[in-house]
Amino acid sequence: MYRILTLGGYAALMLIGGVLQAQAQLTMNAAAEEPVQGWQKMEIEGRAVWVNPKPALTSADIQGAEPATDPNYNGNFVKVFFSEVGAKKMRELTTAQMNKLIAMVLDGKLISAPKVRAVISNDGIITGKPPNGLTVEEVRRILTSVNQKK
Amino acid sequence: MDNTNKDVNTGEWVYERLARLAPKQDWRPNLDLGFANFRRHEHMAKRRRRLQQAVALAVLIASILALVVPTTRGIARQLLDSFYMKRPEAVRSTMPRSELPDFRIEYTSLPSIGHFVSGMAEAVQEAGFQPRLPPILAEQVASGLAVLKVSGPVDERITIDVDDLKAALKSRAIDDVIVPRNWSGVEIGYHVGHSILVAFLGGRLGQSPPPALVTPPGFLLIDFTEVALRAAGLTPSEAHNARNMFAESGGAFSIVPSDAKSNFRDVTLKSGHGLLFENDTNQDERQKCSFCPGPHERVLTWAASDRIFQLRSLTMNVAQMVELADSIN
């Protein structure tokens, strides 16, 4: 069962003219609701989040991703499947951040900052704001980041 | 009132009772009887295992058609000793899933969930065929909004054991079926090549060249199917009906248990016949039959001359699914 990475997290991608960047980069970082020395302050949906500048996972740790739509709850979302190394990193990240935030950063912008409710390892989903979820462009950029890294 | 049992020493009483159960001094274990009982239990366990194997055999036939990953399987057009999917069919059983046998198929090469490929070129290279996509999905793949996965191939082979088949029939008190002795040792092979799956926001479209069911020349697969399905629990009329549908479909049929909430019906496509399953409930029925949908899912399965397709969606209505299917050249 896919675990929800973004519990109520709002996607807030700012895309410029819908033009894709070939080098789209998705990272997952430890994050906090309170200031942390050395962590970068970012904003999402009008709230401040402090993000560890050192990514815990990058696109390279994700084996693949696919789009999906859940009309009843999540709207558009992306399923991500971690590599073996990525699964280990994700397990460590979600263990360390239990009941704290993790940040989904796409091309340097915070798109989601869910609170970790369970340890995640092999796969997960990146959701946006219900009921519509991620925008089509957000989905496209996440997929591009993950699937065209080869 | 006093308790009349207050003076009873319960420990002594139990000891006394247990002592009465002790064997007599000259008692010796009956080894012959013990071994006989052991052999009888072993024999029953063996029969149960044989029944399971026979059931697996029936399953091979009954589920012979699933595109390995997103669950479509197919066989159709009958050749000398090979069958290829012609049209998907389904028949509703009068028995609930719990009373149908557990389908177990042994694979010589295992089905996989598929792996991601970076684009069309890689998919073609790995799968060995050019996927035929609706223009809108081809566009989405090119722009990165839809992704491709490749899975397979899969090979299965099952050898018929007439004794197993007879045992399975007997266990269901079926005595009106003749199992030809020359079926013994016959191998039935099932092969499906690579499958290509497109995952997009509206659902998933899978396609594969028609899987092949291979038997020795002259083997009456359809007869065997009817017998195997009887052994798998279908009534005579169900099995006979399924036999005819099997012949019509080339084997691409699914048995839908009576407790499956999904509805299914034929739909007309440009390429011919399609089979649509709809599940309006929260129940995941994918384990109930080959074509059965997940919660609130629609599944459209159809065959073209050179391949089979399966479209799954949570969001598309029937008209949209048909339109998408019809837009494939």
Write up what this structure looks like.
The complex is a heterodimer of chains A (about 150) and B (about 325). Chain A is of the alpha+beta class. Chain A has one domain (about 25-145): Gyrase A, domain 2 (2-Layer Sandwich). Chain A is about 15% helix and about 35% strand. Chain A contains 2 helices and 9 strands, in the order ββββββαβββα. Chain A has helices at about 85-95, 135-145; strands spanning about 25-30, 40-45, 45-50, 55-60, 60-70, 75-80, 100-105, 110, 125. In chain A, the strands form 2 sheets. In chain A, strands 1, 2, 3, 4, 7 and 8 form a 6-stranded antiparallel sheet that branches. Chain A is globular and about 40 Å long. The two termini of chain A are about 25 Å apart. Residues about 1-20 of chain A have low confidence and may be disordered. Chain B has about 325 residues and is an alpha+beta fold. Chain B has one domain. Chain B contains 8 helices and 15 strands. Chain B has helices at about 10-20, 30-60, 120-125, 135-145, 160-170, 220-230, 235-250, 320-325; strands at about 80-85, 90, 105-110, 115, 145-150, 155-160, 185-190, 195-200, 205-210, 210-215, 255, 265-270, 270-280, 300-305, 310-315. In chain B, the strands form 3 sheets. Chain B has an 8-stranded antiparallel sheet with strand order 4-5-8-9-15-14-13-12. In chain B, a hairpin with a 4-residue loop joins strand 14 (about 300-305) and strand 15. In chain B, helix 2 crosses helix 5 (about 160-170), helix 5 packs across helix 6 and helix 6 packs antiparallel against helix 7 (about 235-250).
